[in-house]
UniProtKB/TrEMBL annotation, chain A:
Residue ranges of domain HIT-type in the record: 231-257
Biased composition (Polar residues): 129-140
Region (Disordered): 76-95, 124-167
One GO molecular-function entry: zinc ion binding
Organism domain of life: Eukaryota
Protein's recorded name: Predicted protein
Automatic annotation (TrEMBL), chain B:
SUPFAM superfamilies in alphabetical order: Actin-like ATPase domain (SSF53067)
Pfam families per record: Actin
Keyword Cell inner membrane: no
Full protein name: Actin-like protein ARP6
Chief location category: cytoplasm
PANTHER family: ACTIN
GO biological process, one term: chromatin remodeling
Family: Belongs to the actin family. ARP6 subfamily.
Function: Component of the SWR1 complex which mediates the ATP-dependent exchange of histone H2A for the H2A variant HZT1 leading to transcriptional regulation of selected genes by chromatin remodeling. Involved in chromosome stability.
Residue ranges crossing the lipid bilayer per the database entry: none
Subunit-level organization: Component of the SWR1 chromatin remodeling complex.
Length: 271, 469
């Protein structure tokens, strides 16, 4: 229980990998603020007025750790080597430099994501600095181009090019019904029967929508809306979590499960 | 491999007759060669390197030769839906698509005169896209190439027959559906993609980071808490998930039925306890785990209370006689797991990620967020044409639940129709194959010459603008 006042805060944790990675300074992770410990009180001494949804820093950290574990692929983090094949070694020298670099890269997705976020932050902060710092030696021409693509695609700079391609005499995006509308009915104008259909957006509007550049990885993630209280479940049997453990705040459903939980209710350091 | 250096093949600008259609998923990759308008059945290959208990390594389709799948470990080139590790992916592609060394691969594709259509997940990182383009041209030397967002290919199907709409006009063959909304529930995540004439509306693409992998991990955790440790047997847990899990139509009622109740002996509680012990009206199932000697597949069967009480008595007798060894399973010769609320609590996460504390909206909410990015005039069309693809959508009751939740969220005037194609796993592949036969395919692909002339940044921009058909 007593972890000496040390409380783990949420961080954009990156796994170690060969090479290096840009790591965003702060604020790049939406939702990271929500995980910041707001309350350093013990679970049982939670201040009055706390609803069931509010969690302590300890619980937040636990949940975050659990979700990280759930998002991992596979039980252990052991790397399975590529099986060595006879007669394969000679072909290794044939790759182009780009390909060799890509094949040898051991970066994981989160490394790439960190790089991308850092790049984005840099592009937003000072576009001139980014373009001036471009390496000029010939061997790294391709990475420079890549960096260009990385910083240019999320922004709207490519948009001029897209709109230039749109001509006025393009076929309409949404054509009407193939069938002629049904015959008029005397009741059509009855205000009680009239149906209100929102107007279909104009072609120009639709083209603008279609020309929208792709969102970035984080922008496309569904936004969390705090409209409804979250449901809590018994950590032993999975029924509604109706009561809390006095020691650690874990939710259980009833006495049976509480006793099962109590047997293993250890409050470990860092948990 | 050497195809990248064949300048002759690239110099001949003849239109390639063969198209390799490749849906490179995280769990399985779907591949097939489309020639002259004929669409064959794709090969569905596990996209992984696997290592079993005896440290033997299996590459992709070799996995079916593996006899003992317990504690098998996987390495996947596709991480979070995006192709990240090319070292592993190249190994798999070389073996499965192109023939490795002297041994011809099952697909026998020659990249030099083949067009490649490759799917990717929406909102990929530009770096990964560029890596992919470079490998495709510089390493394999495909003659032309199109990289498209996976869900968009689902537009190349006869959508209205899927919804069994009475046809008012013979729809022209092989034209992308005018308007639809694709929900792709895959291994890594679930995405919502509104499409207009086969082109994505980028501003409205939404993603929830819950997919088959997350659900399998969650199920493994629940089972490890309640029964025995299966955190290293994710392959078996996945099979169990596929066999046993379903999306509950009434979560509260199902949860109520599978609860053992409190202590005490009043009437309602006794009734609940009886219901619990007799199997909660068919919700409770037994799963017989594979032992890989006599049984290679797990079996799902109805819960039989008699078997359990008898087995318990036997175990108690054995424990009493032997004086220990109380950790034994239910039966002597088979390991049985009794699945109760795990059966529906696991897929419930797609609709309520907050149940595990994940701060993301449920699937219906994500669809609504996507709709709110678009003009209201498009809502009726999108809501009436929702297609669910991806292996995670195979749970029983998935589309019914989604439809019901959506109806509650959207305006009353909108008709909500949710459909799942006959095979949601290969639907994207078939759509891409149909697109390969489309007359305008030459307009969207990028040839090797163009790549060599303009470079990868140009390609990235070109593919980002989407398909113009």
């Amino acid at each position: 229980m007593n972890n000496f006042g040390v409380i783990e805060i949420a961080s954009a944790k990156t796994t170690s990998a060969p090479g290096w990675a840009y790591v965003p300074d702060t604020g790049a992770l939406p939702g990271a603020n929500a995980l910041q410990p707001a309350n350093r009180k013990r679970a049982r001494n939670a201040p009055a007025g706390v609803t069931a949804g509010d969690l302590t820093a300890r619980q937040e950290a636990k949940i975050r750790k659990e979700i990280e574990a759930l998002e991992r692929d596979g039980g252990k983090d052991s790397l399975i080597p590529i099986p060595a094949k006879s007669g394969k070694g000679m072909s290794a020298g044939k790759h182009t430099p780009n390909v060799r670099k890509i094949l040898q890269s051991q970066k994981t997705f989160s490394n790439h994501l960190d790089d991308f976020l850092a790049m984005q932050a840099q592009a937003e902060g000072g576009p001139t600095a980014a373009s001036n710092n471009r390496p000029t030696n010939a061997s790294s021409k391709r990475p420079a181009g890549k960096r260009d693509a990385a910083s240019a695609t999320p922004t709207v700079t490519t948009k001029d090019e897209d709109t230039a391609m749109v001509d006025a005499d393009l076929p309409p995006i949404l054509v009407g019904s193939y069938r002629p509308p049904p015959a008029a009915h005397p009741g059509d104008n009855d205000p009680l029967l009239v149906s209100r259909v929102p107007p279909v957006p104009s072609d120009a509007e639709l083209r603008k929508l279609l020309a929208h550049p792709p969102l970035t990885y984080y922008e496309a993630r569904g936004k969390w809306e705090d409209n409804y209280p979250t449901r809590t479940f018994c950590e032993v049997c999975g029924y509604w979590g109706r009561v809390r453990c006095m020691k650690c705040g874990t939710r259980v459903c009833a006495l049976d499960c509480m006793e099962t939980h109590r047997e293993e209710c250890v409050t470990r350091y860092g948990l | 491999m050497a195809g990248g250096r064949k300048q002759k093949a690239a110099a001949a600008p003849s239109r390639p007759q063969t198209t390799l259609v490749l849906d490179n998923g995280a769990w399985t990759l779907k591949a097939g060669l489309v020639r002259d308008g004929a669409v064959p059945e794709p090969r569905v290959i596990p996209n992984c390197l696997a290592r079993d208990r005896s440290k033997k390594i299996y590459v992709a389709s070799e996995l079916e030769r593996c006899r003992d799948l317990s504690e098998i470990q996987f390495r996947r080139p596709v991480e979070k839906g995006y192709l990240v590790n090319w070292e592993a992916q190249k190994e798999i592609w070389d073996q499965e698509l192109f023939g490795d060394g002297g041994k011809a691969g099952p697909l026998k594709c020659d990249p030099g005169d083949t067009r490649l259509i490759l799917t990717e997940q929406p909102n990929a990182l530009p770096v990964l896209q560029t890596n992919c383009d470079q490998i495709v041209f510089e390493e394999y030397g495909f003659s032309s190439y199109y990289r498209g967002i996976g869900p968009t290919f689902n537009a190349y199907h006869d959508l209205q027959s899927l919804f069994r709409t009475p046809k008012d006009a013979p729809t022209a063959a092989n034209v992308p559906a005018e308007i639809m909304l694709v929900v792709d529930a895959g291994f890594s995540h679930t995405t919502v993609t509104p499409l207009l004439g086969g082109r994505p509306l980028h501003s409205a693409i939404r993603r929830i980071d819950i997919g088959g992998k997350f659900l399998t991990n969650y199920m493994a955790r629940l089972i490890s808490l309640r029964h025995f440790d299966m955190r290293n047997d994710l392959y078996i847990v996945n099979e169990m998930k596929e066999a046993a899990c379903y999306v509950s139509a009434d979560f509260k009622a199902d949860l109520e039925r599978t609860w053992k109740g409190t202590r005490g002996g009043d009437d309602s509680n006794n009734k609940r306890r009886d219901d619990y012990l007799s199997g909660a009206g068919g919700i409770v199932k037994d799963y017989v785990l594979p032992d890989f000697h006599t049984r290679h597949k797990g079996i799902l069967r109805d819960y039989d209370p008699a078997r359990h009480t008898k087995a318990k008595k036997l175990a108690a007798a054995a424990a009493a006689a032997g004086g220990g060894g109380g950790g034994g399973g239910v039966g002597a010769e088979e390991d049985v797991l009794t699945l109760r609320n795990e059966r529906f609590a696991v897929p419930e996460l797609i609709f309520r990620p907050s149940d595990v504390g994940m701060r993301q909206p449920g699937l219906a909410d994500a669809i609504q967020q996507s709709l709110h990015e678009l003009p209201v005039g498009l809502w009726p069309g999108l809501l009436a044409n929702i297609v669910v693809v991806g292996g995670t959508s195979l749970f029983d009751g998935f589309i019914q639940r989604l439809q019901r939740e959506l109806v509650q969220l959207v305006p009353d005037d909108c008709i909500v129709r949710v459909a799942r194609p006959a095979d949601p796993i290969t639907n994207t592949w078939y759509g891409a194959a149909n697109m390969a036969n489309h007359a305008n395919i030459e307009k969207v692909v990028v040839t090797k010459q163009e790549y060599e002339e303009h470079g990868s940044a140009w390609i990235a921009r070109r593919f980002a603008t989407g398909l113009l058909t």
